[in-house]
Amino acid sequence: AATWQRLLAEASAVGGDRVAQIDASRDAWYRGFVAEEIEAFCRTPVRDDSGRDHAGLLTAQDLAGWSATYEDALVVDVGDGWSVAKPGAWSQGPVLPQMLQLLPGVQYVDGVATADTVHRAAEAAKLAFADREAWYGDSAPVPLTELLDPSYAEARRALITGTASMELRPGGRAPRLAAYAATPGRVRGDGVSGLGEPTVSPTGAVRGDTVHVDVVDADGNMVSATPSGGWLQSSPTIPALGFCLGTRAQMFWLDDGLPSSLLPGRRPRTTLSPSMGLRDGEPVIAFGTPGGDQQDQWQLCFWLAHTVGGLDLQAAIDAPTWHSTAFPSSFAPRGWEPGGLVVESRLGAATLADLRRRGHLIVDAGEWSLGRLCAVGRGGPMLRAAADTRSGVGAAAAL
């Protein structure tokens, strides 16, 4: 509270012009007392999960030299008059259109994905997320045009067979993986609480989660946002300021020469991945979810249920969901499980048995456990909103 009061005082000192006040507050944050306290804190060694004390890396100059920027969304044609708008490859956003380009002709029966659809979607996720590991980041050029070229998707689609792959198979020219990522590590958990970041469980037992918000107004303006800087319970508070630093730098690799290598002034390759869907070039839905590496996989389930299964927004969110664990996690200890597939049992016993026959290592997470989606949409004079009920913390409202 004292930090906010001081920022307000800095703003008031420049007079009544609102723009000048905002600039003064930002200067106090990035070039004033906040930046100075952050540097002083980072110079002080703190006990981390290695069991030893280490100083941090941020300096006041790091903050002074940084400014937010605007960039165009990545908009990708995914067929049947649909395109998807996503953040760029400093996030994991492009994996959703990559997966969709690999999945023409999937099927739903009575609003539920068939075993073949789940199988193909899981295999598409493995290929797209392998590309994420090899190519996505902010520290080296990303061949995004090549990765999203329909001819590339066609060549990659040929790798999807009738059985579950047990390999991590990035594509492109000379892909490079972090040494630790290239080898299967610790199993990543049961798919409910083992998401790598603190996530609200179906019972509400775990506190803390990423937040996702979608908004559409009467004029059709739409916003999709997934704000999250990490989690409070594992990041020490700066005593002089009363808040903790973000923890997203854990997404960097310490191997040199990777798109996601730790470098000054570069963004970590986050899992944060808001989305919009455009129909014939017009934005008609905005959607997203918390969930770390599962964000785009759960969004894929929603997208297919809505655009292929023909379900409305709420029914598409409620449809049985699944996700793969067969690629390196973005979170320590970065484990992955070849063939791992976490599913909701509402897919049906016959579907789960079929997936096991195809070689998937199935974890049945229960009937209602996967996904935290919300979505808004517009069509004609109507506005629509829907939210997940699994976590007990989602909500949809019309104001």
Task: Note down, in words, how this protein is organized.
- The protein is an alpha+beta fold and 399 residues long.
- A six-stranded antiparallel beta sheet has the order 3-4-11-12-16-17. It has a three-stranded mixed beta sheet with strand order 13-14-15.
- A hairpin with a 2-residue loop joins strand 16 and strand 17.
- Helix 1 packs across helix 2.
- The longest helix has 21 residues.
- The chain is globular.
- It starts with a helix and ends in a 12-residue tail after the last strand.
- The relative contact order is 0.15.
Salient structural properties:
399 residues; 11 helices; 17 strands; six-stranded antiparallel β-sheet; single chain; alpha+beta
Structural class: alpha+beta
| Number of helices, counting only DSSP H or I runs of 4 residues or more | 11
Oligomer: single chain
- Please give the largest β-sheet: 6 strands, antiparallel
Please give the radius of gyration in angstroms. 22 Å
**What strand line-up does the widest sheet have?**
3-4-11-12-16-17
The CA-CA distance between the termini, in Å, is 30 Å
Shape: globular
Percent in strands:
15-25%
Quote the average pLDDT.
91
**Proportion of helical residues:** 25-40%
Give a count of the beta strands, DSSP E runs of length 2 or more: 17
SSE succession = HHHEEHEEHEEHHHEEEEEEHHEEHEEE
Ranges where pLDDT stays below 50 over 5 or more residues in a row are 189-195
